[in-house]
Amino acid sequence: MNRRTPTGAAVLQPEITTAITDAVLDELAERGYARLSMESVAKRAGVGKSALYRRWPSKQEMALAVIAEFSVGQAAMPDTGSLSDDIRQSLEAIAQWLSHPKFSRILPDLVAEMGRNPGLSDVIEGMIGQPRRERGVVILERAIERGELDPDTDLELALDLLAAPIYWRLLVRDGHVEAGYLDKLTAMLSRALGR
User: Which among 24, 30, 62, 101 is least surrounded, fewest beta carbons within 10 Å?
Assistant: First the structure.
């Protein structure tokens, strides 16, 4: 049985959503969150503002939905059978996420904005931080099941230990991940976390 779309119903076309998503990331990278506007995104995407409002009711929801989709999609959940190998693959994914040409310019601005707006911080934690951490917990719980981590391992602290060195190196020190860095970091974290 063929079903027709009801007359007047908004049909969200994937190619328009992709153009809007790209425009949001470009605008955030170039202008920052505070100067982001629905008008500038619509213009860059080559659509009317109504196309944006059909998808998101506000600038904040639009920006955070796009950033969350990008960020959570970059969170690795390797299952290599080895804590060390899972850590290495996770570190690689974190480094790629944080050094992405657009996102590496978006994140520092977003962190600054979170400092000015605690409500925004809570939303970002719920949409990005928590879903990424839930994926990381799965990796650590598998290591506990295999006997590679103590059952009483502080998983929240372990997750902080995995991401913090790369964040610090790339965004605070404005450095880069040179050859061998992730291997050395993997060895150190495996020793620190492992039994």
Answer: 101
**Residue 104's CATH number:** 1.10.357.10
Asked if 71 and 135 touch (Cβ cutoff 8 Å), the reply is no
- Are 110 and 67 a contacting pair, CB within 8 Å? yes
Instruction: Let me know: does 48 contact 42? Beta carbons within 8 Å.
Output: yes
Average pLDDT, the chain: 91
Structural domain harbouring 185: 74-193
pLDDT, position 13: 85
Do 57 and 44 contact (CB within 8 A), yes or no? no
Q: Please tell me the total count of domains within the chain.
A: 2
- Going by the DSSP 8-state scheme, the letter that residue 128 receives in this structure is I
The residues near 42 (Cβ < 8 Å, ≥ 6 apart) are: 20, 23, 48, 49, 51, 52
Which residue matches tokens 């600038």? 59
Alpha-carbon distance 72 to 7, whole Å? 35
Give the residue from 60, 41, 61 showing the smallest Cα distance to 51: 41
Q: Average pLDDT, stretch 172-192?
A: 92
